[in-house]
Amino acid sequence: MLEIHLDPLGGIAGDMFVAAVLDFRPDLEPGLTQALALCPLIGDVTFDVSGHNDGILTGKRFVVRRHGQAAETAHHHHHDTDAGHRHEPHHGHVHWSLIREALLGSKLDAETVRHAIGIFTGLAEAEARVHGTIPNHVSFHEVGAWDSIADIVAAAWLIKTIGAKRWTVGALPLGSGRVRSAHGLLPVPAPATALLLEGFTTIDDGIPGERVTPTGAAILRYLCPLEDAPRTPRRLAASAHGFGTKRLQGISNCLRLLAFEATDATLTITDRIAVLECEIDDQTGEDLAQAIDNLRSRKGVLDIVQAPVFGKKGRVMTQVRILAEETAQDEIVAAIFDETTTIGLRRSLVERSILPRATATVESGGRTFRLKVAHRPSGDTVKVEADDVAGIDGSGTRNRLRHTAEALFHDGKDGK
User: Fold this and answer.
1) In a 3-state reduction of DSSP, which class is residue 94?
2) Closest to 86 in 3D by CA, of 77, 73, 103
3) Is 0.85 surpassed by the pTM of this model?
4) 130 burial class (0-12, 13-18, 19+ CB within 10 angstroms)?
5) CA–CA separation, 71 vs 92, rounded Å?
6) How high is the mean pLDDT of the chain?
7) Which residue among 47, 268, 350, 398 is buried most deeply as judged by most CB within 10 Å?
């Protein structure tokens, strides 16, 4: 299981992201060439990947060209961003709906299209907020140009092909100064970029310029969760560097990529869940049972445990503990207050480790049995779904059928 951490030493732009991944996996360059040949709206665009050494670090650069002209005059590829910059943006305006329709109608694979549209959607939503309109009315300027379409589609294909379980990013340099755009001079970070970076950790290292571009910010918003990554042991497998076009004073203008692989200690899946708890002493057992059934059926509820406990004055109460998905906790808290008589509860976020699991079926004695398979470090274990033997009389018969079904699964697996 691969995890990738992005270290924005110089910052991040779309071309830097693509270059960093290709420095990590140079074997993907031929496949990327084939994928970009299927990309709409950039039929006359070419690109090349080259090694780069800035005197400090070595890595790759990803350069997109149209009619032989490199996409280096665009502000979002890290060229000068002060008010005295002499290069004007040289891009056309491309409507978001045209880009989306072209991607959906292209011969690109479905996963690449899904990732590309996801990245572009974030950009459209940010631009819409900046200009006080709706995403469907957004017409991209700098970020809708041929070079950024190539960057985003290349990034989408690489994301799909790498198949990393998790992407994280370090603190992002804010930069400073002004940048020329189709709307005139804008502050750094550009308004749409600032919206995309809301919630991310940033630093001010005192080095001016546009350090995070709209395209780079959109890739991060799409890929990287805002919560802290679980701190579990993992093996550093490789490092790589993707360079931008601008030279920064005293620091390499590169995006460093760190690729991690799971160790034996990380064969479990780690995530965060909400724990919601309360004690109830003034609700009838019949009504509380119905309330718990109603809560159990709600989306986002993972499990409910109830147990008798003693409260003040020796009063018997029922303790209710609900495990819920982190993103659904507010709705579930409201439902708890509706379904039970409690007037307060405790809530906390905890990490949990769970085994990877799968399902399977086997045929035995004219019956189909569903199996739950747990992938343990020492080997898989399997258990028959309880409902599939619930209607069978006799404990011995049920146990025999369970053992037969589980043995058939292992025999079939070993025979493959």
Assistant:
1) strand
2) 73
3) no
4) middle
5) 13
6) 85
7) 47
